[in-house]
Amino acid sequence: MKKTRYFSLFILFLVLLGFFFVLNIAVGSVNISFLETCKIISQHLTDSTNGTIIWKIRMPRALAAILCGAYLATSGLLLQVFFRNPIVGPYILGISSGAALMVALVMLGGLSMGILGIHQFLISIAAFAGALGVMVIILTVAARIKNIITLLVIGLMMGYLCHAVTSVLIAFAEEKRLKGFVLWQMGSFSGFCWDEVYLVTVMGGALLLGAYLLCKPLNAFLLGEDYAKSMGVNIMVFRFLIVTFSSAMAGMVTAFAGPVGFIGLAVPHMARLALGTSDNKVLIPGVVLLGAIVTSLCDLIARLLFSPVELPISAITAFFGAPIVIGLLLRRRTAI
What CATH code is carried by the domain that includes residue 90? Predict the structure, then answer.
């Protein structure tokens, strides 16, 4: 019965994902009919205006929303299992703040080396370097500290330090540069090109596969660290892999799309409620699909709600995720 239920839900998730994917491609400031959209995609037509809009603008963006949503949701699930805390998200270890700091140094601090009109790819490299730098520090600390709560607090402090330096750079920044940085901080999938989609697919796919291969240790860890040790799980290696995979996925998304909040925090809870299980063999595919669906929906709303003005994706995900987090906090309070 459980397998049948899971199979039915996964089919439903795939149908919803396909629906929002097509909707993201067909609907916008220029509406394209469903039949024409299918024709352009199936025949790879790029010689018309609508074909150019679909293949060069909307298709990379729609795929980026799907991929980044899946990575953020998986990152959040890994961290919630690792810290055994339902209110933990992928940016809790200061990954987003590290990425924002490096982007601030490039855009506001003059590290663009005199390049006029800072290229988007340079910003992505800077963000990924910042996220990677914080991740290396956290991994170094994780190798020496056994207490998970201490590791969590250190991650929070790293985030505060990065945010403090970023604030100093903002205070001394020129107005023109500051505007670009503020727009990056809001998060958006609009800047994606096909090369970036390919890169995110390959890198993120490898990380997702690695996360799925950790299903058994994750399930054992749910029952406590001592139980996981008794089942033969190497806790030090397990910690290293969890922090690496979750941080790398969150850092990669931040590098290319800017900070996108609440997806990694809210979607794992949605998956648990929908699937009715804590088995990570089921939850990881579930959060991948749900993360892709929710992010695609939020991106669609961001584009259409006040069209032609586009809202920042972080604003929509906050409106979506904040009530879920508040509900969880109230539920825990009631339980106490």
Answer: 1.10.3470.10
Supply the DSSP string of 72-128, one letter for each residue: HHHHHHHHHHHHT-TT--TTTTSHHHHHHHHHHHHHTSSTTTT-SS--HHHHHHHHH
As for how many domains the chain has, the answer is 1
pLDDT tens digit string along 134-191? 878 877 877 777 677 777 788 888 888 988 998 888 888 777 778 778 877 888 898 7
Total residues belonging to the chain: 336
Range of the domain at 244: 2-335
In the block, tokens 């993120």 appear at 204
28-50: pLDDT as tens digits: 878 888 888 888 888 888 888 88
Residue 160: strand, helix, or coil: helix
Helices (H), the chain: 2-26, 34-43, 49-52, 59-83, 95-107, 120-142, 148-171, 175-186, 194-212, 215-221, 225-230, 235-257, 263-275, 280-304, 313-335
